[in-house]
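Lecture 7 notes: from sequence to structure.
We start with the chain below.
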Amino acid sequence: MSLVLVTDDSASNREFLATIMEHEGWEVVEAGDGLEALAMAVERTPDLVLLDIQMPGADGYSTVAAMRQHPALAETPIFAITAYAMEGDPQKGLDAGFTGYLTKPLTRRRLLAAIGALS
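Predicted structure tokens for the same chain:
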């Protein structure tokens, strides 16, 4: 079973993503902010990270940058899950180290298509 780390400061957003991923057979761990996500990722080495950008404390940009500094996480697929949908935002996310950039509101279909494109 593959492990996914779902990080969002909104419990309802985490629940939505976790439910989808569990239904697809993933083991899910959750974090409520970037610092917690970084610690959990270093400890558990997930196969996939779904990471909100706008969070208190360490935002998604600083969190993905820190994750990319760890050898075990350097190649881990990390998807931004965000409400930032202005022109240029997706490229900014990719330049920051995200593997993919998915805007909210997110659908199950779009999430699974993005993850499926990794294989």
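Points to note: The chain has a mean pLDDT of 95. Residues 3-106 form a domain with the Rossmann fold fold (CATH 3.40.50.2300).
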